[in-house]
Amino acid sequence: MGRIAGMMGLAEDVQTPFTRKIKQFSKLLMYMILGLAALIFASGILRGTPWPEMFMAAIALAVGAIPEGFPAVVTIALAIGVGRMARRKAIIRKLPAVETTSSTTIICSDKTDTLTQNQMTVQEIHAGGRRYQVTGSGYKTAGEILLGQVPVVIGENSALIETLCAGLLCNDSRLLCNDEGQTIVQGDPTEAALIVAALKAGLSEQEISERLPRIKTIPFESEYRYMATLHGIEGAPKVIYIKGAVEVLLEKCVHALSETGEAAALDKALVLQNAEAITTRGLRVLAFARREMPQAHCGLDHEHVAGTLTLLGLQGKLDPPRPEVITAVAKCRAAGIHVKMITG
User: Fold this and answer.
1) What does the DSSP assignment read for 164-210?
2) Active site residue 301
3) pLDDT tens across 102-134, in order?
4) Looking at 110, 113, 267, 301, which residue is catalytic?
5) Residues 61 and 163 placed together within one structural domain of the fold
């Protein structure tokens, strides 16, 4: 506790532009008063006045010239500004910050849970050569998967189902309900969005997990930029599902899953073009792939996902902005303030 208190005492107080100007003005005023006192002292000596008398006169002049009321005037002016800001529902802890706030030209803000709701939502899916749109926002399962403007009939699009299953099974997050009936996430919001997208398609997480229980897992690491899970039951073929960065999975894929569920030729250039189109719309992209394994297979290592994968599809997610943020940013721009988003 003592060390922490000592470190806090060593912390330098950041000066605002206003306090720096006051400091500069005070120094200039001090130099002028001292210079004037020295000039009077020297002129009195030259006129023959005894130096003790001139010394006392110079000190009296210096003391009388210092504006004792200046700090009080500044404090009162700043306090009036704080009162006005408080009436506008803006609380300011330090008085000099009033002037700094009025001089703001750039605001740097965090993104997640500040500008956005921290509720990732899948809005676009590319699978089997088709582009699907997903309606709804946040973690509410109310929504549809559309092809064009027509709701998709689940069961007629194997690539779409496999892409959604991959996001549902290759996943460490869970959706839970709190005491107030609200949906909360246990885990990564990015993975939670994949679960919600699968539920919107009518897939049952419990049924799929019972049919393809997880056996092994390769957790996500920034070094590899993917996550993989092995699924299957005893006496049946196993399957590995992988999700990760588009460029990483493309290097490992040799086929693509067609709309009918058959292996088709993989056009890597087209996949990269689709991924770039998704990102230009402000969405975060994840790629999904799988690899079928024999019945006796029960291990999972990086060498098992190093190649011969089948690309399933892409999912584009968006963290929706807070409704009040749009108005706030518009007001900042109207006031000539640039807003910068700083995020990981």
Assistant:
1) HHHHHHS---EEEE-TTS-EEEES-HHHHHHHHHHHHTT--HHHHHH
2) no
3) 788 999 998 888 888 888 899 999 999 999 999
4) 110
5) no
